[in-house]
Structures are given as C-alpha cells and as structure tokens.
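Regression test case RT-17, inverse folding.

Input:
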C-alpha cells in the first residue's frame, strides 16, 4: 500500500505534519527531562538539608530530631535500627549492600519502595561517628511529584500530538495549495500549448517571487523556441529554394541530352556532330549542377551536425600563419595575388576546422577581389590571436553586412555580374565559418574598408 502522496502538495503537507510531530515529541521530551532534573535537584537539596540537621542532632545526642523528621532513621554499622521516625521495631530501610556503601561514603537510592515513605522513594545515607561508634543516618523523601510530572508530560504528548499534527497538516495543505495555485495555472496552460500556435504564452504571476520568476523564464524560453522554429522553417524554405534551382537545371540538361540522343537513334545515317556537341554540353552542365548539389549537401550536413553538437573539436597547438600559407599553396595560383603577413603565434584549436575557415574565407575573397587578397595574423596577447582576410574588391553590399554570416545570405546577383543560379556559392560558406569560430568560443566580424579597401573578415580565436 502506498502511503506517500503522489502530489507535491500532499508530500509537503505530510512532511510538515511529520516534522511537527517530531518537534513536538522532542520538545516534550526536553521539557520533561528539564522538569525531572529540576524536581530531582529540589528533592536532593531538601534531603541534604535534612540530613545535615539530623546528623547535628544525633551528634549532640538529641535523638528526638530523628523522630521529628518526615522520614529519618539511624542504624548501627551492622544495620540494627537505633532510632526511626516512623515507629519502633521497623526494619532498616537500607539493604546490606546499601548499608556497606553508606559506611564508605554517602549513598543515594532512587525509586524504590521504602516502608514509611511509599513505593517510590529517594534515600540519602551518610556515616557518622557517635561516641566512638560508626552509625549510619538515613533520610528519605517520596518521588511522587517527579512521577506525576512525567505522567503529565506523557499525557500532554498523547493528547496534544495528534491535535497539533492534524492542525499543522491541514494548515500546510491550505498554505501549500495557495502557494502552488499559480504553478497549477502554469501547468494547465502549459498543457494547452501547441506547436500550431507557437506565439501562445503562459500567464505570468505578478510580483518577484519564485513562481513569478519561473513564469517569466518559461515565457523567455518559449520566445527562444519560437525564434528557433522560425529559423528552422526559414532554413528549410531556403534549402528547398537552393535545391530547386540546380535540380531544375539538372533535369533540363538531362532532358535535352535525352532528346538529342533520341534524334540520333531515330536517324543514325544523318548523325549531326552539332547534336553530339549539344549532348556533351548538356552532360557537362549536368555534371556541374551535380557537383553544386554535392557541395550544398555537404554544407547542410556540416551545419546540421554543428547545430546538434555532433562535431567534436580535436584541439592542439595551431600556427595560424603557417596554416594560412598552406591553404594559399593548396588553392594554387589564380588571377589574384594572395599575401600572408603578420605575427607568429600559436592558438589552441582544431587544425582541420581552422583550415576549413581559412579555405572558405580565402576562396570567397579571391572570387570577389580585383587583384589582391591579404591574410593578416595578429598576436592579441592574453586575448588570443586574430586572422583578417581582406580583398580589394567592391566589398560587402551595405544591406548584406548585418546578415553576412546568416545561412543562404548572398549578394544580389545583379550586383555581382553573375546570372541567377550561377553565383558559384551556396550561401553557406560564411555561415559555416561563423559556426566553426563560435565552437572555438571565438568571434567573427565583417566590414568594408581597410586594409585593402574592399571586404574584410576578421576572426578572433581565444
């Protein structure tokens, strides 16, 4: 049987009730112990005072002081009763063992029956020398007040504990319900959220308490989710658009090649070489579009893996200047001159990924430069190092600068002198560069102007 409630409200209420019960038990035990100690100390003090009075009387030979005491007895060393306050002929109240301990030193006997006092008695005994003889003086008092105090404590615990526990449990139930009411509203509203309406938000409680802060943070999270959904939808739309163009071109070129081949088969005797040339051109165009599709698929795969955190960086000591020189050598000579200048500095980075960054930036700069590209490496000291790739071309269009590193962002073909669909890029190069730099906890920026007057992309690596 499950006794622990499933709801948070029930758990908190039951916990409060159990804690109250434990505190009540502990408090009652502490009070009872303190009362017991106080009453016991009072009884002991009274016994010591009476014992001193009786000893003084016995030493002076005034045995009447024994009779006048509430409970007193004088015995010889061997336990014979000399005088008793509760009648002659009564046996000694001390046992043989207690008598022997009393001869050695003072002895206290607690909670045992003693004739003349009652079933619960505290006895105090001490030796005394009278006329050269050693005798034992005993005084006693009932411990009934002490026992009554204990009984009252137990009764209080038995009566009050269920009442207090129940009252605190109900109070906690009401209080927790009031505290959790805004959370319940948040939960009910969260259950009604739907992907069909990502703009819907949770009700935010007023105030600065924890539940209000939770509501605001959840709505902030929903804002980010909505923005991410919008970005994903835009990404899918852009990817679909980018894929549609090369696929359409590829299909058209293949259809042209098929028509030319069909004509050649229909009349082989009148085979026209120009038709074969047209087939070759169509196949070459199809090959180019296939390569473009392959590059686009690779770029999309890299971005998807980075978004999911599946690209692991293998960091090591990397020399950016030497890496830039290797990239320039690998890309080979072109119509533009590429110079590598700057400081010899090491950074902790993934060499393959930084090479990919430099390759994308240099290839992009060479494509837009008039005659010159510059790669400048700068040692930033404790801030790491920066690599700037600049060209002497027209620079970034003004409207492209704020979004240069977003996916599928490219300059207007009319401003580049290229036909639509033949821009040569997928619009993902700078986005991949930005993602790689961000994974290294670096930053990237784009500008126009110095050092060559055209576009300049600056990458800082920590």
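Golden output:
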């Amino acid at each position: 049987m499950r006794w622990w409630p499933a709801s948070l409200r029930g758990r908190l209420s039951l916990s409060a009730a159990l804690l109250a019960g434990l505190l009540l038990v502990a408090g009652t035990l502490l009070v009872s112990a303190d009362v017991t100690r106080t009453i016991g100390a009072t009884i002991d003090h009274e016994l010591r005072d009476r014992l001193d009075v009786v000893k003084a009387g016995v030493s002076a030979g005034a045995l009447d002081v024994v009779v006048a005491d509430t409970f007193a007895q004088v015995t010889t060393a061997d336990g014979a009763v000399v005088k008793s306050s509760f009648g002659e002929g009564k046996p000694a109240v001390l046992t043989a063992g207690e008598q022997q301990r009393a001869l050695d030193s003072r002895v206290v006997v607690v909670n045992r029956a003693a004739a003349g006092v009652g079933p619960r008695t505290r006895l105090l005994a001490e030796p005394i020398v009278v006329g050269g003889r050693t005798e034992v003086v005993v005084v006693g008092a009932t411990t009934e007040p002490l026992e009554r105090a204990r009984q009252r404590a137990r009764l209080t615990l038995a009566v009050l504990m269920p009442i207090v526990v129940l009252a605190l449990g109900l109070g906690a139930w009401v209080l927790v319900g009031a505290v959790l009411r805004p959370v319940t509203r948040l939960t009910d509203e969260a259950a009604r959220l739907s992907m069909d309406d990502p703009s819907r938000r949770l009700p935010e409680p007023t105030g600065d308490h924890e539940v209000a802060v939770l509501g605001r943070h959840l709505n902030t999270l929903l804002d980010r989710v909505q923005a991410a959904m919008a970005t994903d939808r835009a990404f899918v739309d852009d990817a679909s658009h980018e894929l549609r163009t090369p696929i359409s071109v590829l299909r058209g070129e293949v259809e042209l090649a098929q028509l030319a081949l069909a004509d050649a088969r229909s009349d082989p005797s009148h085979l026209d070489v120009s038709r074969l040339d047209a087939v070759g051109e169509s196949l070459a165009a199809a090959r180019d579009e296939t390569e473009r599709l392959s590059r686009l698929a690779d770029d999309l795969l890299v971005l998807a893996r980075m978004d999911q955190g599946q690209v692991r960086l293998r960091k090591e000591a990397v020399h950016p200047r030497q890496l830039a020189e290797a990239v320039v050598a690998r890309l080979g000579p072109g119509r533009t001159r590429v110079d590598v200048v700057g400081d010899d500095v090491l950074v902790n980075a993934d060499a393959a990924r930084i090479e990919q960054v430099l390759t994308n930036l240099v290839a992009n700069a060479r494509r837009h430069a008039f005659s010159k590209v510059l790669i400048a490496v700068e040692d930033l000291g404790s801030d790491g190092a920066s690599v700037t790739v600049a060209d002497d071309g027209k620079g970034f269009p003004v409207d492209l600068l704020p979004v240069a590193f977003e996916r599928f962002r490219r300059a207007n073909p009319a401003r580049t002198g290229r036909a639509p669909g033949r821009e040569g890029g997928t619009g993902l190069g700078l986005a991949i560069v930005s993602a790689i730099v961000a994974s290294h906890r670096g930053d990237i920026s784009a500008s126009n102007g110095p050092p060559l007057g055209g576009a300049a992309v600056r990458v800082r690596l920590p």
